[in-house]
């Protein structure tokens, strides 16, 4: 009898334990399915609200991997957002059409040490480096409080920028509209602006030729996406070397800033916008800003990359002189950046300069499209990798082709130097 009751107790206990295990298992299965369907919903919402043409160049891959760079949010969380963003999202404030999270002012204030970590100053206001408590680093652009922009315009612009995703754009990852302040939160670009590299004083850190052409192609791809991949198409309006930022792999991305316009901007009465020296002369005379005006600015940028000189330093006068020389068969070598110390590919130089010269043609319809430019630059780089180009004879002794692996090594050396400077608080700089 006693043995029987012990058997019953053991049986019941085993039953209860099995029941409990099954219940816990069922609970987790249910949660897992709910989470998956939430993520699914959120990504289909994003897909529906970021209209990218299927036939736009590189569009599909770009859209899906645009925020997956090493310096970008990676994992998806509850709202289809990266986990690290969720902690900073104000409870229910999400711009429905852009899917961008709204950051709380106090979190950004804390992450920027009360707005003291300035890394740059743009026309819209200062830019700060922000170290989030999750360990991620972002750049916070604070729009000047004297801006006439109202709440509605700000949200419209954020929605416009939020739908743009490309690996060669500095992606907007959030915004803040609180305490009368308007802020944009961007992926942080650890290698600073192209301008800072072109005009830095250290000759040893000058950008090598190969990297310059890679950067040119990156910028061209970003612009091609804006012109032919985004729907509706977008005109950048402010292509210049300080707007091109470099990530930790020295890949170039352009700042997708406020004021990006839709397809075409015709406003004869509005003040001329843009940066002196990069502006399409046709726009200045007609007041009409078109994709070909961006192409003109891109041509100026290409010459800037070649010459290491900006329009304010007489770049275009140099270009015109060199172009005249070409008829006398002198060539573009004369304007090449002296920081390169003769280390460049002669054939690549003449090909890149030829594209640049077409871009700055006075007649907009004679300028190539960004798609054409991407094709030409891609072909130049392809033939480099096939070893068809010869370096300038001046550097015959140290002829070095940089393949992607070598590039990685160079970058990690640079990163190492940066890490060293970070370890030493006395030399800490924010605008690396
Ligand atoms: N995402 C970012 N990561 C790292 N640094 C940045 C980032 N965004 C901006 N900066 C820094 O801040 C500087 C100012 O940027 P911003 O885009 O506001 O102005 P700008 O491009 O120099 O001029 P403008 O406002 O006339 O276009 C940049 O040159 C760069 O050094």
In short:
The chain is α+β, with helices and mostly antiparallel strands and 432 residues long. It has 13 helices and 14 strands.
Helix content, binned percent: 40-55%
Radius of gyration: 26 Å
Structural class by sheet pairing and helices? alpha+beta
- CATH level 1 name of one domain: Mainly Alpha
Series of secondary-structure elements, N-terminal to C-terminal:
HHHEEHEEEHEEEHHEEEEEHEHHHHH
Spatial sequence of strands, sheet with the most strands? 3-4-5-8-7
CATH homologous superfamily label of one domain: Transferase(Phosphotransferase) domain 1
CATH topology of one domain: Transferase(Phosphotransferase), domain 1
Question: What is the makeup of the main sheet?
Answer: 5 strands, antiparallel
Spatial separation of the terminal alpha carbons: 83 Å
Q: What's the architecture of one domain in CATH terms? A: Orthogonal Bundle
| Overall shape | elongated
Ranges where pLDDT stays below 50 over 5 or more residues in a row are 32-92, 262-266, 393-432
Mean pLDDT across every amino acid position = 73
Query: DSSP strand (E) fraction?
Result: 5-15%
Number of helices: 13
Number of strands: 14
Cofactors, ions and other ligands in the entry: adenosine-5'-triphosphate
Keywords: ATP-binding, Kinase, Membrane, Nucleotide-binding, Serine/threonine-protein kinase, Transferase, Transmembrane, Transmembrane helix
Pfam families: PK_Tyr_Ser-Thr
InterPro entries: Kinase-like_dom_sf (IPR011009), Prot_kinase_dom (IPR000719), Ser-Thr/Tyr_kinase_cat_dom (IPR001245), Ser/Thr_kinase_AS (IPR008271)
Organism: Vigna angularis var. angularis
């Amino acid at each position: 009898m006693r043995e029987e009751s012990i058997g019953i107790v053991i049986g019941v206990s085993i039953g209860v334990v099995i029941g409990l295990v099954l219940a816990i298992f069922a609970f987790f299965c249910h949660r897992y399915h709910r989470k998956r369907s939430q993520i699914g919903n959120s990504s289909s919402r994003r897909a529906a609200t970021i209209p990218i043409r299927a036939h736009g160049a590189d569009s599909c891959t770009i859209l899906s991997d645009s925020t997956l760079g090493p310096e970008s949010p990676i994992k998806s969380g509850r709202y289809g957002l990266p986990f690290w963003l969720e902690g900073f999202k104000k409870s229910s404030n999400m711009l429905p059409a852009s899917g961008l999270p709204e950051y709380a002012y106090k979190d950004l204030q804390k992450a920027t040490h009360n707005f003291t970590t300035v890394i740059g100053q743009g026309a819209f206001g200062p830019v700060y480096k922000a170290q989030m408590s999750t360990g991620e680093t972002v750049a916070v652009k604070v729009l000047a409080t004297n801006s006439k922009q109202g709440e509605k315009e700000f949200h419209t612009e954020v929605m416009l920028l939020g739908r743009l995703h490309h690996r060669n754009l500095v992606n907007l990852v959030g915004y803040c509209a609180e305490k009368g302040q308007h802020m944009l939160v961007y992926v942080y670009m650890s290698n600073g602006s192209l301008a800072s590299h072109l005009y830095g004083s250290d000759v040893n850190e000058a950008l090598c030729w190969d990297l310059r052409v890679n950067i040119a192609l990156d910028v061209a791809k970003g612009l091609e996406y804006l012109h032919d991949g985004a729907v509706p198409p977008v005109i950048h309006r402010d292509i210049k070397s300080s707007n091109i930022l470099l990530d930790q792999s020295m890949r170039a991305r352009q700042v997708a800033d406020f004021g990006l316009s839709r397809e075409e901007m015709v406003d004869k009465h509005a003040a001329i916008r843009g940066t002196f020296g990069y502006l399409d002369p046709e726009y200045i005379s007609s007041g009409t800003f078109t994709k070909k005006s961006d192409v003109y600015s891109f041509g100026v940028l290409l010459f800037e990359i070649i010459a290491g000189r900006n329009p304010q330093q007489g770049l275009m006068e140099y270009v015109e002189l060199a172009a005249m020389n070409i008829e006398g068969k002198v060539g573009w070598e004369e304007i090449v950046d002296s920081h390169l110390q003769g280390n460049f590919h002669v054939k690549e130089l003449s090909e890149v300069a030829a594209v640049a010269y077409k871009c700055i043609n006075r007649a907009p319809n004679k300028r190539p499209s960004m798609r054409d430019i991407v094709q030409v630059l891609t072909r130049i780089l392809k033939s480099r990798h096939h070893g068809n180009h010869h370096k300038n004879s001046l550097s015959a002794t140290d002829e070095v082709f940089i393949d992607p692996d070598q590039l990685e090594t160079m970058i990690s050396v640079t990163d190492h130097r940066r890490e060293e400077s970070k370890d030493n608080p006395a030399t800490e700089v924010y605008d690396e």
